[in-house]
Amino acid sequence: MEWQSLSLGPVQANCYILWNEQLECIIVDPGAEGEKIEAFIKEKGLIPLAILLTHAHFDHIGALDYIRDIYDVPAYVHKKEAAWLNDASLNGSQLFPVGQVAVRPAEKIIEQEGDLTIKHFTFQVLETPGHSPGSISFVLKAENIVISGDALFAGSIGRTDLPGGSHKELLASIHNKLLTLREDTIVLPGHGRPTTIIDEMDGNPFLNGF
């Protein structure tokens, strides 16, 4: 499997595109600038299968309808944030000078943790709330990768001052879910550069003293 990150929109949120030997791809968090996502998919000759959302904040969902209109693929979101997609007061866009963001409901609702299989892709879904109530992380065990959304960053953690955020809950999610993964697991965060679990265990100042 291969992957590529695209930093998109006014806050440079990471959209990830994962693809296999059959050129089938999964799109994670199409936050803005749908034309850039479309151009990359076209350049590589990829066949989109689905869109996964780590959470439903505006900077991770802004190009969702654009991509669905082109490729007619389903979007997956956690049940706790299903109503956020078309509610600017919940998805945060009402709180920032970016214009109100509202997109159509997701076709697929993730009810709980467990394996999620989409054709040749299998993800382990981890509930990692704290940044937002329905934040989830996607683990690709065979690839030793976790897509952490805005839970864990290189040297930092997600903000918890938006609707439904909880600093205590976020720290518990990181320690009980993410830091229990293999130490050499590659972390693909919602913003910024990739990191590893061991690097964050050893050097992330926000995780000391939990």
From TrEMBL:
<dbReference type="GO" id="GO:0016787">
    <property type="term" value="F:hydrolase activity"/>
</dbReference>
<dbReference type="GO" id="GO:0046872">
    <property type="term" value="F:metal ion binding"/>
</dbReference>
<feature type="domain" description="Metallo-beta-lactamase">
    <location>
        <begin position="12"/>
        <end position="191"/>
    </location>
</feature>
<keyword id="KW-0378">Hydrolase</keyword>
<dbReference type="InterPro" id="IPR001279">
    <property type="entry name" value="Metallo-B-lactamas"/>
</dbReference>
<dbReference type="InterPro" id="IPR051453">
    <property type="entry name" value="MBL_Glyoxalase_II"/>
</dbReference>
<dbReference type="Pfam" id="PF00753">
    <property type="entry name" value="Lactamase_B"/>
</dbReference>
<dbReference type="InterPro" id="IPR036866">
    <property type="entry name" value="RibonucZ/Hydroxyglut_hydro"/>
</dbReference>
<keyword id="KW-0862">Zinc</keyword>
<protein>
    <submittedName>
        <fullName>MBL fold metallo-hydrolase</fullName>
    </submittedName>
</protein>
<keyword id="KW-0479">Metal-binding</keyword>
